[in-house]
Design goal:
By secondary structure, the chain is an alpha+beta fold. The chain has one domain. Helix content is 54%, strand content 16%. Strands 1-2 form a two-stranded antiparallel ribbon. Helix 1 packs across helix 5 and helix 2 packs antiparallel against helix 5 (110-138). The relative contact order is 0.20.
């Protein structure tokens, strides 16, 4: 299994491919960002619904992180709380001061969000991409 799982939105529709090629890079990147964020929003909502809540800090830390480089858009859903990985993957028993912590079972929320919603997220990203490309190509 890779460190990060992702999905790629590819254009199968010939009309959509032609329309996208007509767009300038200046117009294309904002459209890609909009589509990627729409797909990621599906994961974000699911992750927030699955995350175990004790203080609410972990749930509040779940957000989107976006990066654009070389005309590629990367949007990820992350949990930024310092203990997020400990909740997602669990911990082994370990020493804490003079005592022993028994460890904690994994309580995954990000991976299940991806597994549960990847098809829905992909469909949402494609829908937003298609509408935006066709709309921009008409201008």
């Amino acid at each position: 299994m890779s460190k990060f799982d992702a999905f790629k939105v590819e254009l199968d529709d010939r009309e959509l491919q032609v329309a996208f090629k007509r767009l300038s890079r200046k117009m294309g990147i904002p459209i890609l960002k909009k589509a990627a964020r729409a797909g990621a929003q599906v994961f974000l909502v699911e992750a927030k619904s699955l995350v175990p809540v004790k203080t609410g800090e972990l749930k509040k830390s779940i957000r989107m992180k976006q990066k654009t480089k070389h005309h590629q858009v990367d949007v990820r859903v992350i949990a930024a709380a310092p203990h997020a990985h400990l909740v997602e993957f669990g911990t082994e028993p370990h020493r804490v001061g003079k005592g022993l912590h028994p460890g904690a079972a994994p309580r995954p929320f990000l991976r299940p969000a991806f597994d549960n919603k990847k098809e829905e997220a992909l469909a949402k990203a494609r829908e937003v991409l298609a509408k935006s490309v066709l709309s921009a190509a008409k201008k």
